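Exercise 7.
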Amino acid sequence: MSLDTPRNTTRRPRTLTTHEARQRLEHERNARLAQLRAMDEAGPDAEEQVMAAQRDVAERVLTEIEDASSRIQDGSYGVCVACGRPVPVERLEILPYTRFCVPCLHGTG
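Solution. The predicted structure, written as tokens, is:
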């Protein structure tokens, strides 16, 4: 709590703006696309199993990013798909495409 915030004031949790959410998702998308380009450029010398696993992860995350973009469009972004409660903004800042709050992710929600 800030020193200049009255104690009796109820503090609303900070939320990501649509613009902030889109920026974070775009950053994640660009990072995954860069990973895929780097894998393509690695050529035949790279370990095929490692490359396949990394490609699968990058493609899965890209799908999750696209799904999160759709949630922005339909107004459900930032809401846990399991319990319906808001996902804390701190979690969305770290993992902007997440669908779950931490308790639901770990099965304790």
